[in-house]
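Morning!

This is the sequence you dropped in the shared folder:
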Amino acid sequence: MEELSKRIQHRLITDYDILFQENINKEKIRHYIDKVVESLPNREKEFFRDSKIRDELASTIMNNIIGLGPLKSLIDDPEITEIMVNGHDKIYIERKGKMELSSVKFDNQKDLMSVIHKMVAVTKRRVDESNPYVDLSLADGSRVNIILPPLSLTGPAITIRKFLKEIKTIEDLVSRRTLTKDMADFLVAAVKAKLNIIFSGATGTGKTTTLNMLLNYIPIVERIITIEDTAELKLSQENVVKLEIRQANVEGKGVVSIRDLFRNSLRMRPDRIILGEIRSDEALDMLQAISSGHGGTMAIVHAGSPEEAISRIETMIAISHVMLPVWVVRKQIVSAIDIVVHQDQLADGSRKITHITEVKEFKNNEVALKDLFNFEIIEDTPEINKVEGEWRKSDQAPLFINKLKKFDKKFNKDFFSKAS
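The structure's back. Tokens below.
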């Protein structure tokens, strides 16, 4: 029965390319399934005389055609946070912060490519030999990267970073020990006070998740513009405009970059501009916009530390072909950015905000940083997969303390003079 079901599925994929080229519905898929079943030899057709058996077969095949085939069980598993497909027969997963090889696999490369086409079809993007890699988001918010041969020598590769439905508020991050209650309260006050915040960290450390949670605390009366490579941010406010870059068309034309969208957003009467990630010359536009009064800006930077995040922004400006002395760039960084929220994944797989760092002052031609909160590792015990540590709070209040106090009176100088 199982082998026959696979044969019917392969017939559908082989004979009916239309299934992957249109917004197909379940009724039409059932029609094609019935056509294949009716064409079977009588002895095989006997298996499907019972309408219940035929319905079960239809449901299975429809899930594989409309859904994501073998990947569905992995996506539905709440313990799995990342899925990495290395060709049709090797699928790795990250479970509770640790990577392992899954027993799930595709039967062949054609089945894998059919799932890739389904993922891409609903996004109005394309992936083929002329455009062999693409970023997109699934309907549930999970992020996907796809890269095809010949760039990928191991076959079609998919990386899925799942959207964690169980994380809905900053309190959920506190309960997961991503940060402390004091740190959460501080960040919520910082958002309400319209501080300019950079979220930094390596890939997969949880930067976007933290940013998403904090976006909930932007007042509903504000007009918010989001700018992203691939739409991932989820906002509950009503006055929101979501902008997404446009890739080149078949002729290699029509590109709309993050920088293009950012410049346009300044004409859209924004109260807030949220950048999914800055990685190029848009960094200079961001600093200039903030300096000209666009407060409350939040953006993501890939970096290994708060210091490295600042250094990366300097580098981005340096490659923007605007000839500015380094000291001018650094002075503008200090005047524009208030704090860096840095996130790490520790050796035991846990994700933590390890630094909330004030961009304090321009001193001796350098950007001076000051940790307001930092996580210190006390004990790393690999044999039991455990990292013990604690968060330390600075005993010096940040320069912007009065801004915070307007939104929460507990944020005064005493808050930082008291031990955590």
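Headline: Residues 88 and 109 are 5 Å apart (CA to CA).

More detail when I'm at my desk.
O.
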